[in-house]
Amino acid sequence: MNVSEICSSLRAGSNELALQTAAQKNIALSSVINSIEKNREAILSANAEDVAAARAKGMTESLVERLALDDKKINSIIDSIRIIISQTDPVGEETAGWKTPGGMTIRQVRVPLGVVAIIYESRPNVTADAFALAYKSGNAILLRGSSSALKSNRAIVAAIKEGLEADEAQGFGVSSAIELAPCESHDEVQQILTATGDVDVVLPRGGAKLINMVVETAKVPVIQTGAGVCHLYVDESADLEMAVNIAWNAKTQRPGACNAIECILVNERIADKFLPELAGHFADKVHLKCDEKSFEILKKSESGIKNAELARDEDFGFEFLDLICAVKVVTDVNEAVSYINTHNTKHSECIVTENRANARLFQAKIDAACVYVNCSTRFTDGGEFGFGAELGISTQKLHARGPMGIKALTTTKYLIDGDGQVR
Fold it and tell me: What DSSP character marks residue 65?
């Protein structure tokens, strides 16, 4: 892969796209929707080949679920692009403005980042989501997916380009604003990460290994999207039925997602009652890795410990991405906060409580992008937040944090108008 050549084309595309109006970009995105619909069967056929190959190589079913597409997921991709079309174009938005004592007018306005690269694993819907967000915010995008989703990604990008090319002659599409890396070798990733001057920013989206590699290797700016070691703390005042339902949803709906919980903390005052209810509900579905206190409680319970075992130290702070969950008993909300801030990845955390003071203390002290009270961490998602889609969940504190929509793909510059002033 010649990253300089690819990025040169993308740079030209980003320069052209930066001059497009919101109406022009929306027409192009509508054409992309039509093309995805037209090529639906080709995309699903390519994805079926990827899924079959992944299963043959022993990929876990929770990760296969992330890879697999069906009509419902294609519909979701299309719905996400429609929402992005409906959103206000952030480019050119004036975020601040004032006049200096010397008579100059200063305006701070939003502008695209330029050429954005995303390095991601498995999920082919990210291909369409990342493109649509980048395009609407005026950015060209270089996509580097995983080899496991290569055929799916190729089919989706081909459909996107076909849609953009359909209106390009009329000035409503910029097909050079998207490129897919060939995924022929890992060297491509290194080329992207060291493409200083060619790539303006890179985003890793995947597991901890990928994210850490990007952060440690990159010479271009990185917006760090985090692995999801997410926790649920069940407070002493919690509605236990609510807590079980939230735990079930947050762990089992999509265990391979980064916003699924990986550890449940339980206040010691309600542990004897709550843990048997949890284990009974999770029976034959979720395997529990328990600290000594929670394991002793389950040994004495009627639900038994068929789906539980003593945890190892390394099970705490670990992203299982599977139907496995660590369990720990804590003394109070303060210990829960301290434990979470020590073991989490700054992604999404939840408290179930009827104590308003504990809820606000938890939200104030937890260091994470999203902090929930009495609702599932599974809502950390660009679509659920009303963004249509997301480029990732940023867990850092600079530039963007949480689900990244179109505004997160812009920066600002100052426009200064004068009439001859000198200093």
Answer: H
**pLDDT classification of 380: cutoffs 50, 70, 90:** very high
pTM, entire model = 0.84
DSSP string, 370-423: EEEESS-GGG-STTTTTSSS-S-EE-SSSS--EE--SGGGEEEEEEEE-SS---
> What distance in Å separates the CA atoms of residue 98 and residue 80, rounded to the nearest whole number?
37
Residue 114's H or E segment, with its range, is none
At 389, is the pLDDT very low, low, confident or very high (cuts 50, 70, 90)? confident
Whether the CB-CB separation of 288 and 279 falls below 8 Å is answered with yes
Q: Check residue 206 and give its pLDDT.
A: 80
Longest CA–CA span in the chain (Å) reads 84
DSSP 165-179: HHHHTTT---GGGEE
Q: Which amino acid is it at 365?
A: K
Burial annotation 141-179 (CB, 10 A radius, 16+ → b, else e): bbbbbbebbbbbbbbbbbbbbbbbebbbeeebbbbbbbb
CB 390 within 8 A of CB 129: yes
Q: What is the dihedral of CA 315, 319, 325, 329, to 10 degrees?
A: 60
| CA pair distance 159, 138, nearest whole angstrom | 20
CA 350 to chain centre: 18
